[in-house]
Protein backbone atom coordinates (compact mmCIF):
# COMPACT_ATOMS: atom_id res chain seq x y z
CA UNK A 1 0.00 0.00 0.00
CA UNK A 2 1.41 3.37 -1.04
CA UNK A 3 1.78 6.14 1.55
CA UNK A 4 1.28 9.79 0.67
CA UNK A 5 3.87 11.60 2.75
CA UNK A 6 2.67 15.01 1.53
CA UNK A 7 -0.83 14.55 2.97
CA UNK A 8 -1.58 16.47 6.20
CA UNK A 9 -1.20 14.44 9.36
CA UNK A 10 -4.20 13.52 11.43
CA UNK A 11 -4.26 15.44 14.70
CA UNK A 12 -5.42 13.46 17.72
CA UNK A 13 -6.95 15.12 20.73
CA UNK A 14 -4.23 14.97 23.40
CA UNK A 15 -6.67 15.05 26.31
CA UNK A 16 -8.37 11.85 25.13
CA UNK A 17 -5.11 9.99 24.69
CA UNK A 18 -3.81 11.18 28.07
CA UNK A 19 -6.96 9.97 29.83
CA UNK A 20 -6.68 6.63 28.06
CA UNK A 21 -3.08 6.28 29.26
CA UNK A 22 -4.01 7.13 32.83
CA UNK A 23 -6.71 4.47 32.84
CA UNK A 24 -4.37 1.83 31.45
CA UNK A 25 -1.86 2.26 34.34
CA UNK A 26 -2.58 -0.29 37.08
CA UNK A 27 -2.83 0.98 40.61
CA UNK A 28 0.18 0.23 42.80
CA UNK A 29 -0.43 -2.02 45.81
CA UNK A 30 0.55 -0.62 49.18
CA UNK A 31 3.76 -2.03 50.61
CA UNK A 32 3.73 -3.76 53.95
CA UNK A 33 6.48 -4.68 56.39
CA UNK A 34 6.51 -8.20 54.93
CA UNK A 35 7.30 -6.83 51.48
CA UNK A 36 10.29 -4.88 52.75
CA UNK A 37 11.86 -7.97 54.32
CA UNK A 38 11.22 -10.20 51.31
CA UNK A 39 14.52 -11.39 49.79
CA UNK A 40 12.97 -13.36 46.94
CA UNK A 41 13.94 -10.62 44.48
CA UNK A 42 17.57 -11.64 44.99
CA UNK A 43 16.95 -15.33 44.42
CA UNK A 44 17.44 -16.98 41.05
CA UNK A 45 14.22 -16.98 39.08
CA UNK A 46 14.95 -20.17 37.18
CA UNK A 47 17.12 -23.00 38.32
CA UNK A 48 18.23 -24.68 41.50
CA UNK A 49 19.43 -22.97 44.67
CA UNK A 50 23.23 -22.89 44.40
CA UNK A 51 23.96 -20.96 47.57
CA UNK A 52 25.53 -24.01 49.27
CA UNK A 53 27.48 -25.19 46.23
CA UNK A 54 31.26 -25.20 46.36
CA UNK A 55 33.14 -24.13 43.26
CA UNK A 56 36.49 -25.53 42.21
CA UNK A 57 38.53 -22.98 40.30
CA UNK A 58 42.02 -23.55 38.98
CA UNK A 59 44.05 -20.34 38.98
CA UNK A 60 47.03 -20.35 36.64
CA UNK A 61 50.10 -18.27 37.43
CA UNK A 62 51.04 -15.52 34.97
CA UNK A 63 52.47 -16.93 31.78
CA UNK A 64 55.67 -15.66 30.15
CA UNK A 65 53.75 -14.18 27.21
CA UNK A 66 51.17 -12.30 29.34
CA UNK A 67 51.04 -9.05 31.29
CA UNK A 68 48.44 -7.27 33.41
CA UNK A 69 47.52 -3.80 32.22
CA UNK A 70 47.70 -1.18 35.00
CA UNK A 71 44.81 0.78 33.44
CA UNK A 72 42.11 -1.88 32.89
CA UNK A 73 43.62 -4.65 35.10
CA UNK A 74 43.04 -7.26 32.40
CA UNK A 75 45.54 -9.98 31.61
CA UNK A 76 46.64 -9.44 28.01
CA UNK A 77 48.94 -11.20 25.56
CA UNK A 78 52.30 -9.54 24.88
CA UNK A 79 51.10 -8.61 21.39
CA UNK A 80 48.68 -6.16 23.09
CA UNK A 81 51.51 -4.35 24.93
CA UNK A 82 51.75 -0.63 24.03
CA UNK A 83 54.12 1.03 26.49
CA UNK A 84 55.48 0.93 30.02
CA UNK A 85 54.19 3.72 32.28
CA UNK A 86 55.59 4.69 35.67
CA UNK A 87 53.01 2.33 37.22
CA UNK A 88 53.58 -0.61 34.89
CA UNK A 89 52.58 -1.99 31.48
CA UNK A 90 49.72 -0.45 29.49
CA UNK A 91 47.80 -2.27 26.75
CA UNK A 92 46.99 -0.89 23.28
CA UNK A 93 43.29 -0.50 24.14
CA UNK A 94 44.01 1.77 27.12
CA UNK A 95 46.74 3.73 25.32
CA UNK A 96 44.34 4.77 22.52
Question: What this model shows, in words?
Answer:
By secondary structure, this protein is α+β, with helices and mostly antiparallel strands. It has a domain at 60-96. It is built from three helices and four strands; from the N terminus they run H-H-E-E-E-E-H. The strands form two sheets. Strands 1-2 form a two-stranded antiparallel sheet. It has a two-stranded antiparallel sheet with strand order 3-4. Strand 1 and strand 2 form a beta hairpin. The longest helix has 11 residues, at 14-24. The two termini are 50 Å apart.
Largest sheet: number of strands, sense, barrel closure:
2 strands, antiparallel
- The total of beta strands comes to 4
Gap between N and C termini, in Å?
50 Å
Low-confidence stretches: none
Would you tell me the overall average pLDDT? 79
- Shape descriptor reads flat
Oligomer: single chain
Which short descriptors sum up this protein?
96 residues; two-stranded antiparallel sheet; 3 helices; flat; 4 strands
Topology:
Blueprint: H1 14-24, H2 33-36, E1 66-68, E2 75-77, E3 81-84, E4 89-91, H3 92-95
Antiparallel strand pairs: 1-2, 3-4
Amino acid sequence: MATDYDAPRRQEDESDSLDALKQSIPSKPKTTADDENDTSEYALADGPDLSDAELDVVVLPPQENEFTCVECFLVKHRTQFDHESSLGPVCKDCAA
